Amino acid sequence: MILEVLAPFILTFVVELAILIFIGTDPRRTALHAFLINALTWPIATALLMSFPLTSVIALEGVELGLPIGLIVIEVGVILAEGVLISLLFEMSHGKSLVISGLANFLSVFIGIFAYPFSYPLWIVFF
Amino acid sequence: MKTYSGSDNCCERGHQSYMMKRFLEVLLVLSFSSVLVLPARAQPFITPWGMHFIPVFNYIENIEDFPDSRFISAYRTSHDARARDFVTGDGMIPSAYPKLCINIVYAVPKAAIGVSDELVCAMNSEEFSAFLESSDAKEVVSGIEPSELAPDLSTEISVTNYYHIALGQTLEYPTRTVVTHGLRDVHIVLIVLPIVGLAGIVAILAKRRRK
Known about the structure:
- The complex is a heterodimer of chains A (127) and B (211).
- Helices cover 69% and strands 11% of the residues of chain A.
- Chain A has four helices and three strands, in the order ααββααβ.
- In chain A, α1 (2-20) crosses α2 and α1 (2-20) crosses α4 (94-115).
- The termini of chain A are far apart.
- A three-stranded antiparallel β-sheet of chain A has the order 1-2-3, with no helix packed on it.
- In chain A, β1 (56-60) and β2 (63-67) form a beta hairpin.
- In chain B, 37% of the residues lie in helices and 28% in strands.
- The longest helix of chain B is centred in the first third of the chain and has 37 residues, at 6-42.
- Chain B is built from four helices and nine strands.
- In chain B, β2 and β3 (81-86) form a beta hairpin.
- By secondary structure, chain B is of the alpha+beta class.
- The A-B interface holds A 1-2, 4-7, 9-11, 14-15, 17-18, 21-22, 27, 32-33, 35-44, 46-47, 49-51, 53, 85, 88-89, 111, 114-121 and B 22, 25-26, 29-30, 32-33, 36-37, 40-41, 45, 49-50, 151-153, 185-186, 188-191, 193-194, 196-198, 200-201, 204-205.
């Protein structure tokens, strides 16, 4: 079903909108900008993450940590891309837009991991 | 001590109501997102990351070569087998998608089946084992899977396996396999969304530059 595929996109859009709504003047225009930014970045990031679900396992004393290297690298790219797009669409400085993009994406990934725990190649095992 | 004039008080109240409005907006979008999060949390995940199950259709391609036999599709649980259904006239082996059971096909001489099809399918595992022994049934195909894993980005929609059977031997792998390809919802979303996003952003920036 198409809604099943779109659910993570809607979730990302809603979470990022919750952050971007603070910097926009007109809520409707902010929602449109947030939608367009996510419509451009989310499918590319999803396709890349599906193709390269790289995970690096770090074994420490008593703890095994699965780090989603693919997710981290892709998210850094998304933060940079969205930072540029936010600065263009919301007409603000690159530094400020990067901070907002970082915050919005951190929150969306955090909620995404909570919503789809088995979808992310991330784990911590204590032994 | 800081004091406010009438207009300052008015500004302060205006700022407070503005912040309250923004806070309520955020609360609204977060409560909406929780509606999306909670069902996803409750959904049981059995598929590995980046994969999904696609149906596998199985056919006996030379079923006409055995007019004296009937074929029963059975499924194997951890320790026994039970009949699922009879193989249809066109050779289609009934198997339940998306269950993860392994299916087997037995060839039973038509003359040896003394009971109705419904009764065979209703047998428990002991009765079914006794039925197979008494009717001189032969296992012709084993290890039939009703579904298989495919990458999420794969264009594979379904797999059709064809078995060319012989009564004296048990086939473990299909004789030939046909994979059906096509665009799925995920492809449509991943292609259409970025085009919409890019077109929208370019249109907004172009409109702004024209002004």
